[in-house]
Q: What sequence folds into this?
């Protein structure tokens, strides 16, 4: 159902973005969450995976997959899954374990059958939960041993000035316009637009940003055709579902070494820093 892990990665990204609730709160960092919210992430990951793959409810555990009960275990730290007694006290049970790190933008998932021999000794926890021992770590059958997580754009902005212009702008539209002006060439996901705008209609904010940035030579590619292919032709990352990428354009001339794309009968390349500002062409409507 997910040979390349894209769907699982999408579900994890959606769960994290839901707990940040950036549209209403303006948050984008795990450290900004309250303690009770941090403990709720695992539940959201479980829900989003079931929503994405349509798993049946389990009889005793979270899911019923291919006729087998499977429990979903989540951790922000690799191997820190907490295993309750019911996973092994009445026979070995199967666990789907998932992990993701926002700061390294990596995630992984696997399967392990839980039994006494794969668990550390019982500690002082009142709930009796235990973690995997070294043997348990070696017993994990990795479904996706490691993959890139859709990046949390605001979290990875290293330039404090850029972050201020985006995250702390006085108006939502200004924040979104600054987002695409300051982060040209980088994939920006829908949740980042919502967090920057803190308004309901993120699609309108992107359309307005296109209009405002056009005189500066900047275009914004979306995820519908032909935009992803056009972005790739310019050497940019291709936007996937719910993502955007912006860049400043300049007319391409015979002999220019850069790749170019045709827009409205003209040839355009990515602008060099020293190129004068030229008004950007109007991109074709997505889906045409």
A:
């Amino acid at each position: 159902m997910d040979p390349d892990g894209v769907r699982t990665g999408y579900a994890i990204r959606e769960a994290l973005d839901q707990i940040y609730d950036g549209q209403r709160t303006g948050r984008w960092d795990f450290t900004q969450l309250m303690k009770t919210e941090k403990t709720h992430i695992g539940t959201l990951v479980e829900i989003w995976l079931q929503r994405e793959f349509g798993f049946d409810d389990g009889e005793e555990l979270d899911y019923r997959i291919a006729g087998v009960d499977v429990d979903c275990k989540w951790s922000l730290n690799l191997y820190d899954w907490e295993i309750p007694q019911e996973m092994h006290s009445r026979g070995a049970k199967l666990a789907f374990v998932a992990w993701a790190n926002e700061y390294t933008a990596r995630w992984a998932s696997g399967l392990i059958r839980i039994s006494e021999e794969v668990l550390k000794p019982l500690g002082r926890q009142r709930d009796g939960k235990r973690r995997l021992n070294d043997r348990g770590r070696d017993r994990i059958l990795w479904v996706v041993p490691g993959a890139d997580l859709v990046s949390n754009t605001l979290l990875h902005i290293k330039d404090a000035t850029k972050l201020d212009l985006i995250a702390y702008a006085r108006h939502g539209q200004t924040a979104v316009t600054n987002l695409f002006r300051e982060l040209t060439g980088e994939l920006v996901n829908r949740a980042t637009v919502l967090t920057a705008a803190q308004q309901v209609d993120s699609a309108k904010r992107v359309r307005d940003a296109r209009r405002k940035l056009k005189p500066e030579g900047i275009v914004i590619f979306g995820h519908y055709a032909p935009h992803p292919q056009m972005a790739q032709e310019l050497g940019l990352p291709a936007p996937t579902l719910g993502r955007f990428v912006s860049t400043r354009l300049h007319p391409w001339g015979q002999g220019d070494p850069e790749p170019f794309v045709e827009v409205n009968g003209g040839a355009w390349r990515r602008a060099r820093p020293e190129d004068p500002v030229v008004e950007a062409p109007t991109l074709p409507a997505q889906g045409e």
Q: What stands out?
A: The chain has two domains: 6-148, 154-270.
